[in-house]
TrEMBL record, chains A, B:
Domain of life: Bacteria
Organism encoding this protein: Micromonospora sonneratiae
SUPFAM superfamilies for the chain: PUA domain-like
PROSITE patterns the record matches: YDG
Domain YDG: 7-148
Protein name as catalogued: YDG/SRA domain-containing protein
Amino acid sequence: MADRTYGDIPGFPAGTTFVNRAALTASKVHRPLQGGICGGIDGAESIVVSGGYVDDEDYGDELVYTGQGGNDPATKRQVADQELTRGNAGLARSQLDGRPVRVIRGAGGDPKYSPASGLRYDGQFRVVDHWHETGKDGFRIWRFRLVTLDGADLPPLPSGVAGPAERVATVVQRLIRSTKVAVGVKLTHDFTCQVCGLRLMTPAGPYAEAAHIRALGRPHDGPDVPSNVLCLCPNDHVRFDAGSIYVDATGVVRDSSSHAEIGPLRTSPAHTINPTQLAYHREHHVP
Amino acid sequence: MADRTYGDIPGFPAGTTFVNRAALTASKVHRPLQGGICGGIDGAESIVVSGGYVDDEDYGDELVYTGQGGNDPATKRQVADQELTRGNAGLARSQLDGRPVRVIRGAGGDPKYSPASGLRYDGQFRVVDHWHETGKDGFRIWRFRLVTLDGADLPPLPSGVAGPAERVATVVQRLIRSTKVAVGVKLTHDFTCQVCGLRLMTPAGPYAEAAHIRALGRPHDGPDVPSNVLCLCPNDHVRFDAGSIYVDATGVVRDSSSHAEIGPLRTSPAHTINPTQLAYHREHHVP
């Protein structure tokens, strides 16, 4: 495993500017001289957002970042499919582990959020989603949604783990949201997993999670309606979101790597599922 | 199931004051005329914090609230054990579902955060933990930690689910934190669950969660060290935190309701577990 450093680099707080990539490399805030992602199969520690990919989107405290590979540096166009390897695998790994990723913006990026010249370290972000799609140039690209860890987005640290120093090391790995729609779907299925049939019992009653089939939020913008929600146990929720399993067009749950049948999706007459959302999940989250 | 209303009541925003319990009941912000918890087995919608229990703790944006039952209203002392039933079960249920709980403070509570007279609706909180302990009067009490949903504690809503109206309905059900220590323990066990042996695979690699045996934060204040952490699959993490399973003094994982053996806790020579923390978990999280 590479000798990685996650989180802030002492002496280079968010806002630090660098005249060029050589200065950035020297600081170790982003070590590669050329690559946009510093990472590998064990995780990604930093990315540079500099307008190198036509599919990147910058919203300031949130980024939709295109993975690496298949890109012609001369034209900035995609000329081949991207794979979930190297830095792309690293960003996906950092999502699974809940590790912070340093984000550096360069002058070539979106002028609204990028420095006028050189590069600027813009603090720690976390990877909250990754998926693939067909980019503007017609090839498969991997995309990563990152949101800032600075400012008001992180729930308060538990008492006893206070202070900015700890903040660097304490990141949200997984966050399950609850909506009225979500609770309704869980009640319909009586907290029984639609994939494996488990009804996870606790002393306070059964527990399940609601999985949005097409994710809420940018850029998927799935709707918060029952037909876009599955009632799952936590393990199958992780598997579904990560693309380990999918529901095929006939309603059978399958393993993504072997496409072997796991079993029929358990359904209820009181809960209609929209097949278009299941197709969206297959097309974007299954490798 | 009771006809419950979760979240803000239209016309009575946070900060609304009430001259007495009758006025509070009329508003439906807290419906019972006397009880501290409005809730049952299906969930809890509101609580009143008014100094009725000697074990309550108020930190403003965070509360440690004592459940109901076993209390002598004349002396405010505990005279019997509390059970995980009625309103207590409701608060635990609302934690599992990620439902918001309205918090009303009365003049009898901690003067630092309570109104000088009457009652005040202080907005929506979420239940983040519940456990039992021996209270100051020597009887079992159930305790609930609640943190405010107002202000800076909630991660931003996904784009497309914006606005205060949706905020009411969108609550964090479960939040898995990652720390350097946590990631280290997971690597030691190669992401294999110490309870069931599952190594949950995703296209980006294996996934596991780190469970703090004695919880971080108030009032448990467990340490963030490897000897206080288990590597678990998400399902067993939920079971462990909820007290569905525990590790006995001989290192055997058992079901809390039947005390039947599930199997030995899987261990690694590179990961020493502190038996004191396992005892703490048994004493406070197993009903």
